[in-house]
User: What shape does this take?
Amino acid sequence: MSLIETTDLYKTYTLGDVSVHALQGVSVSIERGEFVAVMGPSGSGKSTFMNILGCLDKPTSGKYILDGIDVTATNLSKLAGVRNRKIGFVFQGFNLISRTTALENVELPMIYNHTPAAQRKKKALEALQAVGLEQRAYHMPNQLSGGQQQRVAIARSLVCDAPIIFADEPTGNLDTKMSIEVMELFTRLNKEMGKTIILITHEPDIAEFAGRLITFRDGKKVSDEVKK
Amino acid sequence: MIDTFLSVLRISLKAIMANKMRAALTSLGIVIGVAAVITMLAVGSGTQQNMNDRFSRFGTNILYLRQPWNLDESISSPKDVTMDDVRAIREVKNVVSAAPYISSGFNVKYGITSTSIDVLATDTDIFKTYDWELDTGRAFTEREVDTYAQVAVLGASVAQTIFNDVDPLGKIVIFDDIPFTVIGVMKKNGQGGFGFDMDEGTLIPYTTGKVKMNTGWNSSDRRALDRVIIRVEDINNIENTKEDIANVVRNTHKIHPLAQDDFQLDDMASWIEEAKAASKTMGILLGVIGAVSLLVGGIGVMNIMLVSVTERTREIGIRMAIGATSADIRLQFLAEAVTLSCIGGLIGVLLGVGITLIVAAHSTSIPAQLSIISIFISFGFSAATGIFFGFYPAYKASKLTPIDALRYE
Assistant: This one.
């Protein structure tokens, strides 16, 4: 069974009298260990698709099975636990909590699944080591470069041993050198740790790092190709 | 469990410390509320303690007989309280002594010194009734009472004021126009009783008072007494003794068996009841003031928490994305509000205790007595304020959806 299996997803937003059809029948299946890039212009529905895959939102209709869990049949409050155990998020704006050390930011997901404090610290330090930032554990986000902040965010997505990492424009705020560093890190996590990585981007050379490219336009999947 | 509690507390403290000035101003309302409650309760209970001390010094074995202040209309012509009543009461079982009591203000002169004093006209029983002690000289005798002697026993403060270092014994002092010989001076006894403070007063025989000074007395009838002060032997029997005294007085007043009493007989218990009622009213008043200041403080906490929720919408989104449930978010903001108001409460307790100690150390006129219970209660209320006023902002935070919160700029 696929890790991610969506069947005929529809999402319609109603803004006053106008209905916006953000997704119009999207069916995708992603296997464990894949590195998928999702591309498409603004308004193509790729962000809506990612929000649904990331269990942050629910589709209007259609079915979504994540690692055997029927997400469409689970209520939003239970989805917090699903996000915690199954998914790591990496955002364009890093989304670290300010005035909180790198270590504490990485520990945060484990606070919400009630991991004992000592174990929390140990696992957070291991994750920081995996992204090469163990020396910066006690720095605040504003004392770190953009690339370092993004690597802290990646460490945070690793600590709960979630099989999937969702990266929404992870290099959007980074220069080329840092972008390549971050992308190489994703590649390594994919190869060495077997993480399934789903990446949203609109830069073709960033999408190059992925092994599979899905393209969206007008709420529909228009292409889905696996690179050799 | 303890682990979760500690991490929630740590997150709260961190959020509060991030805005120190704002937190300080917000908790100021609570600080003032709690400090005010503790100080006022301390002064309140000090005042009551002070009152209790006075009562107990004055003795609970004392009864007062007098004409009622508010006369019932059904009593057409109340009889005055007179020496006939005093003599009759002295025969009652369990009565140690009964002293006539007529008091009035006078101007007293000695040489060029003059001051105004309370003069109490009474007889020798007064010395058996109250536990007053002589410092020098002697009390007047029954013979002096019978012979209208112009003799006076001065209170300690009066003697000090008029004579300073001169020995007062044997000196002549002038009360309005009438000369009196000083035969004794009382020891200082601290606070006096109701309506008469021995330290500030002077005792003279009631006979002399009535005959020589009748223009000064506030009664048209020379035989009238203001009160009779009665001391009973066995306090456990005070109710029976009161009944016996009432019967004797009804007899001397020739009251018809079906008619009501035309006099009033009070004991300390009824005074204490009145004082208790007064201090209860004061307690309610203090409670209302405290509640209002905590309410104002609580609204301040709610206001700042709502601002905080809006400011940190994005943070809420991040926390939800990585696995925080609505309940986790609610708990976090609630903990923050409670921590904020508890810090306020703690500072308020320290401030209130400090003010109370300073007042107690530097002021003799304002008695202050700290009570541990008032400290716990006001601190508890500050925590409760945090829960109550923190709930709505926390609820609002928990109702955010992760995508809306993450998109918030």
